[in-house]
Amino acid sequence: MTYPVITIDGPSGAGKGTLSLLLAKQYGFHLLDSGAIYRLGALAAKLLDVNIDDESAVANICQYLDVEFEPTESGVAVILNGQDVSQSLRTEEIGMMASTIAAYPSVREALVERQRSFARNPGLIADGRDMGTTIFPNANAKIFLTAGAEDRAKRRYNQLMEAGCEADYSQILADIEQRDLNDAGRAVSPLAPADDALLIDSSTMGIDEVCQTVVSHLQSLK
Ligand code: C5P
Question: Which residue's CA is the nearest one to ligand 1's atom 11?
């Protein structure tokens, strides 16, 4: 049985998460935040004191992750080994570690079926880097959402300030640029738009305009 899948790919901080959440609510679809799965692999390796340079040990951890995603009002809570780790996943440190382990072919392979299993009734919004190219190549609609690195860094900086967290703009920009390089440069499933994806540059667009553009595109496909 196949269910409708809409893929939202793009670099860090382009607004994929917010867009995916809005679309999931609008259509009543499930949500796959595939970045959270790579972050979980990195966090689990850290908690188990496993060296993230050891590809096969990290792949083994990823294969057997004990994880659940529970819908909440503001998104999805991530439960690892029975503990809510939603906050610990979001640090820059874990983001960078996730980007490192995401370049390992055996880690990506270990996570393919787990990601595909999210496609279920009545449909799925899948957010990531390779949703449209590798995980769901037959998706019903594919979006590639991007924005300039500086725009993305500014948004991240503002989010952290609003949340009352400390933030260093130059460090955030450097991390975003490094992750772009890692994601676009890796040999397996590099960050790239699928041939049949709709490209949206959100540098000068608000999230409502982005969402409206996507909804109009989806309606045009019917
Ligand atoms: O999207 P997020 O920033 O949470 O992803 C963390 C890292 O996981 C990314 O920098 C990227 O390296 C990796 N990732 C990936 N493929 C995906 C989703 C995330 O390689 N589908």
Answer: 99
